[in-house]
Design brief:
The chain contains 12 helices and 4 strands, in the order H-H-H-H-H-H-H-H-E-H-E-H-E-H-E-H. The protein is of the alpha+beta class. Bound molecules: flavin mononucleotide.
Length: about 325
């Protein structure tokens, strides 16, 4: 009762989801749609990994895929020289090989359209399509990972030293490798590292009270609802961006940079304030913030013990 009468949080969320669907439809209509190119490529690539691999698959969306890809590259929302475009082409090359004997008219038409486009692009340089699992030949073992995870704690007191953008980008290298639903990657990290901007941003959420003034760097994690054509996927911005955030946080931690997640409760005035500050689109939502910097050796850090593993899991048999 209270929420439906006094709070407009649900209505704002609903509006953002609807705006996202409209933005998705508009993007598709005008050919500025990297999300569908990613999702469809992902679905085709998954089809390529199926056992047994079928002679005909992806019929329902292969023509759309070629169309979307061609238009996205034409419109500049995808760079034909990027690793991402390499991946898409590698998957499509493989797909058309795999379906060479298919009687599907849709596949035949898509193959012809693709062949025409493909000849205008350079050879694939970077990423190939589906491949055998590559056991991570890393120097990290589980003990290192556990040590990194256990060593991380939310730090709120920082030195005045700024963190170089190279260090932040290296951490992002970890973050962006996170899984996302259908590989859409519907998030962006808005990063602020100059004192005036950090202060402007850090003063908006409530959770920075008492320590906002000395945060050297801050990230606003933003989710993009224009990645989705249906409300059923409305939660993915939260899931996908948080998976990326954790990678980012551990990437910082491994380079000696501390951080603290900052809550983004859905409060109308603050939401409007932040949207205005960051110039966000109607279909974009703030997910949370991440303060980062070098830990002040004199600042105290809550120990924040974790519940026992047994309480966090149940192995089950039905
Ligand atoms: C989604 C989320 C929101 C959080 N919001 C705040 C916040 O607004 N202010 C703050 O000081 N800490 C915030 N934290 C940090 C938590 O207090 C902290 O993660 C928790 O106490 C566990 O401690 P640890 O991170 O050191 O393991 C947040 C953490 C998460 C994951």
């Amino acid at each position: 009762m209270y929420l439906s009468i006094f709070s407009d949080a649900f209505r704002r969320e609903e509006r953002a989801v609807n705006r996202g669907i409209s933005a998705y439809q508009h993007g598709s209509a005008v050919g500025r749609d990297a999300y569908t190119a990613r999702r469809n490529t992902h679905m085709l690539e998954k089809g390529l990994t199926m056992r047994p691999r079928r002679e005909t698959f992806g019929v329902a969306y292969i023509e759309e895929t070629i169309d979307v890809l061609g238009r996205a590259i034409g419109a500049g929302v995808l760079d034909s020289k990027s690793a991402e475009a390499d991946w898409m082409c590698a998957v499509l090359d493989e797909y058309f090989k795999a379906t060479a004997e298919s009687p599907s008219q849709q596949i035949a038409r898509a193959r012809a359209a693709y062949g025409h486009m493909r000849s205008r692009w350079n050879e694939i340089e970077g990423i190939n399509g589906p491949h055998r699992p590559t056991p991570s030949a890393t120097r990290l073992d589980i003990d290192d990972l556990v040590e990194l995870a256990q060593g991380r704690r939310s730090v709120r007191w920082f030195t005045a030293d700024s963190v170089s953008r190279d260090v932040v980008e290296r951490a992002l290298e970890v973050g962006i490798e996170a899984p996302t639903a259908c590989n859409r990657q519907p998030y962006r990290f808005e990063i602020f590292d100059d004192p005036a901007s950090v202060q402007a941003v850090a003063s908006v959420p409530m959770g920075t009270a008492g320590y906002a003034e000395q945060i050297p760097g801050i990230v606003v994690v933003v989710g993009d609802l224009s990645a989705f054509f249906d409300e059923r996927d409305r939660h993915l911005i939260y899931i996908d961006s948080c998976l990326a955030s954790m990678g980012f946080i551990l990437g910082l931690e491994s380079q000696g940079v501390a951080s603290c997640c900052i809550n983004w409760p859905d409060i109308t005035e603050r939401d409007l304030q932040m949207r205005d500050l960051l110039n966000l689109e109607d279909h974009e939502r703030v997910i949370m913030l991440i303060a980062y910097g070098y830990a002040d050796p004199a600042g105290l850090v809550p120990a924040s013990a974790k519940k026992p593993i047994e309480a966090a899991r149940r192995f089950r048999t039905l």
